[in-house]
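Feature request, filed as a ticket because there's no other form

It would be nice if the structure record came with a short human-readable summary line next to the tokens. Right now we just get the raw output. Example of a typical job, pasted below so the devs can see what we mean:
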Amino acid sequence: MKQHRSDLHALAAAYALHALDATERDGFAAHLPRCEDCRRDVAEFEATAARLASAVGRTPPPALKQRTLAAVDGVRQLPPRIPPARPVTGLARAVKRGAVPLALAASLAAAVSFAGLAAWQHRQGEEARDRARQAEQRLDAVSAVLAAPDARTVHGRTTDGALATVVSSDRRNQAVFTATGLPAPARGHTYQLWLAHDGTMRPAGFLHSDGTVLIDGDPADATAVGLTVEPAGGSPQPTTRPLLLLALPS
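Raw output as currently delivered:
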């Protein structure tokens, strides 16, 4: 299939994600050495995909091992093997009878402790699985935008020099924002994204540092994407001077 130059530029994201068929891949690979813009786009998309993939894996918190080892002391162990008991005297029999309630109470306390540990571990496992599922869903959504046949890319820089990239798809009515070199915000603050609609800035999600996010809201009628520093939790309207106002392709 014959490809126009503009069509080839639009294949950068799909090429980085290995989403092209053999004919398209060969055509784009032949075009790539002659196009600096496409080489840059492919490198950025590959780096973004790697960051997103690494977000799916979750490393257990270091404190988990310490808490588990500390809880072992409360777990009941198997009783030792002992020879058959010799006949006991009346006094020893009375002492033995008195020890039974104490042993039952200790066993019950150990069982409760073990059940609490098991329930806590189950909750931790469920939360980790939920986070992994959410990360996979975000990765799928971002990948779908990057690989969309009508994906369009614009680049810009924030006022502090970070590189920003927006990839949008009219067909999916979604857009992806990527930042590289963005410093962590001050404590108690976050980066907030905005979509410009008819002169009104509407909240479009958050970015805590370098990375890639799916922009919230409807980018179809938006004219630009903005980025500001806001108090943690976000603001209904920008409260600081924009670090970036990147015009979207029409």
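Something like this underneath would help us a lot:
The CA atoms of residues 148 and 214 lie 14 Å apart.
The chain is about 45% helix and 20% strand.
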